[in-house]
Amino acid sequence: MKLKFADRMANVKPSAIREILKASSDPNVISFAAGNPAPEAFPVELVRKISDELFATDPISVLQYNITEGYAPLRDKLREVCRTHYHVGTENDDIILMSGGQQGADLAAKCMCNQGDVVLCEDPSFVGCLNSFRQFQAKLIGIEMDDEGINLEKLEAAIRAHEHIAFLYLIPTFQNPTGLTMSARRRREVYELCKKNNILIVEDNPYADTRFRGEAIDPIKSLDDDGVVLYLGSFSKILAPGIRLGYAVGPKELITRMATAKQAEDVHSTIWSQRVACRFLESVDLDAFAKHLGDIYRRKCDLTLALLDEKVAGRFQYTRPEGGLFIWCTLPDGVDMLDFCARCAADKLAVVPGNAFLAAGDEGKTQSFRINYSTPTDEQLRQGVEILGKVAHEVIG
Amino acid sequence: MKLKFADRMANVKPSAIREILKASSDPNVISFAAGNPAPEAFPVELVRKISDELFATDPISVLQYNITEGYAPLRDKLREVCRTHYHVGTENDDIILMSGGQQGADLAAKCMCNQGDVVLCEDPSFVGCLNSFRQFQAKLIGIEMDDEGINLEKLEAAIRAHEHIAFLYLIPTFQNPTGLTMSARRRREVYELCKKNNILIVEDNPYADTRFRGEAIDPIKSLDDDGVVLYLGSFSKILAPGIRLGYAVGPKELITRMATAKQAEDVHSTIWSQRVACRFLESVDLDAFAKHLGDIYRRKCDLTLALLDEKVAGRFQYTRPEGGLFIWCTLPDGVDMLDFCARCAADKLAVVPGNAFLAAGDEGKTQSFRINYSTPTDEQLRQGVEILGKVAHEVIG
Question: In chain A, what residues touch B61 (CB-CB under 8 Å)?
Answer without folding.
Answer: 242
